[in-house]
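User: Assemble these into one structure.

Assistant: Restating your components, then the assembled model:
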Amino acid sequence: MLHVAFLIPLFPLVGFVVLLTFGRRLGNPLAGWIGTIAVAGAFVATIITFAGLLGRPSNAREFTQSYFSWIPVGGLQVKWAVLVDPLSIFMCLFVTGVSMLIHLYSIGYMHEDRDYSKFFIYLNAFVFSMVLLVLANNLLVTFVGWEGVGVCSYWLVAFWFERDSAASAGKKAFMYNRIGDVGFLLAMFLIFSKVGSLNYLTIFSHTHLLGSATATAAVLLLFLAATGKSAQIPLFNWLPDAMEGPTPVSALIHAATMVTAGVYLLCRMNPILGLSSDGRWVIAIIGCATAFVAATIASSQHDIKKVLAFSTVSQIGYMVLAVGCGAYIAALFLMVCHAFYKGLLFLAAGSVIHGLEDEQELARMGALRKWLPWTFATFLVGWLAIAGIPPLAGFWSKGDVLANVYAKSFPLYVAGVITAFLTAYYMSRLFYLTFTGKARWQEAAGDQPAHHTPHESPWVMRIPLLVLAFCAFFGGVLDLPWTNRGLNNFLGPVFAGTLYHDNLSMTSQWVLLAIDGVIAVAGLAVAWVLWRVTASRPALTPAFLERVWYWDDFYDALIGRPGQAVARFSATVIDAKVIDGAVNGVASLVKSSSTGARRLQTGYVRNYALGIVLGLAAILVFMVSRTWWS
Amino acid sequence: MSALAVVTAHSTIVLPHIRYLAILPEIVMLGGAVLLLGIASLVRRPLRVTVSTVGTIVIAGTSLGLALWQWADISSHGPYTAIDHAVVVDGFSVLITITVACAMILSALVGDGYLRREGVDGCEFHVLAMVSATGAMFMGEANDLIIVFLGLEIMSIALYVLAAMNHRRAASGEAALKYFVLGGFSSAVFIYGVALTYGATGTTNLTQIADFLSHNVIASNGVLLAGLSLLLVGFLFKVAAVPFHMWTPDVYQGAPSPVTGFMAAVAKAGGFAALLRVFVSSFGTLQSDWRPILYAVAVITLLFGAGVALVQRDVKRVLAYSSINHAGFVLLGVEAATAQGVSASLYYLFTYTFMTIGAFAVVTLLGRRGDGHHDIASYRGLAGRQPLLALAFAVLLLAQAGAPFTTGFLAKFQVVDASVNAGSVPLAVIAMVSAAIAAFFYLRIGLIMYTPVAGKGFLPGIEPLDDDEANAGPSGESETDGTGDAAPAELSAGNGQRPVWSGTEGAVVVRTQLNAELLLDTAPGEVQVLDPSEDIVEADAVDDETAAESAAEDTAKVPVPALAALAIGLCVAVTVVFGVIPAPLIDFAHKATLLFIP
């Protein structure tokens, strides 16, 4: 059953090719259905592979499937091959599953878009790249997938590129990711130079070839890659801008799947991470800082999708924190639960936006409970899940992370708990502003007219909401602390030597969980008091937080403006005078000499024959001179 | 008693054992050609083009299949020599046979459309091409200088006639005549070289020459070196290396376009095959003597080919000079004189076959009826009219320029790598510089194809010239070049755009005159010239009407016959697929080198 693994990337690839070729002709909604079916096929193939993997004993769940040799150059042997192991299949399961739901949702959401088929082309290309990233058996093919998801993200963020903001958001996302990609490339070079291979299994069995300094460098470079893709400090501020893309894209790429690629990479490279304790501390601290900073920002945003975006940054911060603590499985547990509830929240937010005809301002929502009952109910589940209310998925997964952090470092744990409180607070704020209170969408604000009555979304959009709500509710059963921990057992072999064991007693685990629950409820309560009725409290949304800690302004002053100055200087002086001068000089030199050479081509046969004779004579003279000299 | 009787009385002529399997692809190819010709002469009416095309494809396909069978055979049983060691069947020869057979199939596909368009019946094109292909195959298989010479002549003589195929165009006949005179000259040089080599070594067999040279140190090897030089000249003429290249532009331009593509691929494959075998294996011990020569020849070939192509206006001439540049690149591999060099050269020849035949197939189509529309200006806006055709041409040109993800890149990379490993670093650098220069004219054609013709329904040349326009820009420049009467109405001012290329503002000439007049003007006894007008600026103004007509024709769609489309598609597919997945072809060339005798 493991042999169907090749179908996992093949399905979305075929979908991509079919849509690329016939997409426009298939039109709306057939193109969407074909895209969805392709991803559903990948999901089924993943389930079959998963079943096959479960059928093996837990220490033999590793399997490489090679397709063809890609770069056979001397010592560098790169193959197109997939590595099927618990980690990659676990990732594939939720990537293809969530993608399938979001494809389905997009059929309804993108219904009125004129580039309907193009949207699904990109979406299928994205799923293919993401699956490739996850399944690759070597760093280079992972990098291909990594760049593939990057470019799809660019296309999809800038999908409505007629809008300036969307076009520049796409560029911003791309640029920030490039910085991370440099880290990936350098890490790859470094590892190759020491180990002589890019194959994961070969690298992992030769980690002794990496010295501790090299290992730290490699870890930090890999982490740089992860900060770009997973939107961590200092490269996190592309993600909120990326909300310019259509909402299903935000749900799929910028919440559930692509942004977790960095965390996946760190988990995949766990034997390298295991070599560098310093590197892991950096990861843990940055993750914790990101979680906290993003949570503060999320509590003061006014755009429904921006709040969710910063919330995503914050949640990935938790995952990175867990990875830094060596609690890989906790990170992955949070990742999958996050994919469920954040995907759900985005899709529900999309349903709200859809219902209000593209309104995203929280100030112009409120009291939507009555008009959007399905959306309300599912959003409620997502909200409680992310806030960490027991017994929903978020409670268990965040609790797992925090327990590990507690055992590792108390200061980080405190920061984590404060962030958990903030999370409950800002999500509740979002919820109250959207679904309770007064119906502010009826008021005309400034130059904007009042909205019509909001309408509930069609069933193709509701089904994914319901499925995800179910998952967000019950997702915790994957890894409950008092059971025999299914996820831990399944993923355990991948992290055999490097997994951190918190060794907490059952009592302290329960106490920690109780603290989590109390904190979550406290967050809900505070927000209830502050935001249930009032829609605007400027004191609680200071400009410092609204403007993202002036992070963008800082980059603008530090890099943007000097960069522009350098570019301007290069354009006006270096390029125009120096380079163009040299190029034009060479060009005119070549041109004049060519014109001269062309005159040899007289058209007369006698001259041509003379050329042959002269050439022969020159050769003979050379030969004669050699015989004389030798 | 006559001399013959003396000989026959005192010795019996021992015929060698002939192993027909060794030369089966050639037998099929040549026999098929003769058969086709026989059928054509027995039926009353000229043979239909379809019949000859199908026949040719079947014959060449069979030949290709047999070559593949030979490949399988030598892969398992090892290479061997046959017919008294005069021919050799090894990886090298089989690769050349496969190359030539592929070229034959592709050319038959392209030629089919051409013959229909020009209304030529009969099977001459196909038959002659097959005969020529047989010659090239023999050059690859030859293990004896005499066989090399036989192959050379079989290939060349058929090519002379092919070049003259289009008897309606004076240029065609002129090209053939030039090719014939110069080819005869170079053959004479070559056979003299064979004689001198025989004189020095006592044999014409390549293996025995190598043996002789490795066992004997010749004190004064003047005769041998002279023979070697003459052989070299003979080969360099065939592969169009500078300064033995001068026939190339005229012949490429004058010959019918499908023939040009065939010639570019097959003559180069055959010529380089023999050059590689004779020099790298037989004269391997004399490397220090001939490598410097090839070094120098490669340098000037690379630079000259790339440089002069820049200032050409006729696309066929551009491609002719580009083929000279390509010859320089293959010479890099020969000059390296290592196994890697041989492998790289073989890879280059194989992939170049597809790139060049594909490119000339497009040129054939765009030449329109009469095969005369090869001015670079008539390519303007092609992408708007026929996007697929333009895309295919662009891909093939990019491949020739050496763009990554095409076989062209890999081919250039390999020869340069071989050259560097053989210690000829400066040569490799020059090659890369020449590739950069060459990229310019490939890209220029691409750029022109993707530059739209200004204004729909507005044909260049119909509207009267605006004074401002006529005085401004390029036409002004052409005046400074001494053309005086602003001939380039069609190109520069007429469509309100500056020409996008930079090299030719001075030479914008609308060439509608037939070169027949030039031919007639020549003094008797002198074979003059296709076309000095290419090289000296022609001042004659063209009637507005003529310009308008040709412009109107230029912007019409050209029909694309299915078979030609198939050929172009195949060429593009091979070029791109093996550029993206390089391993199979590189392995093929590498293995061919491993199975190399001696």
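Chain B touches chain A through 46 residues (CB under 8 Å).
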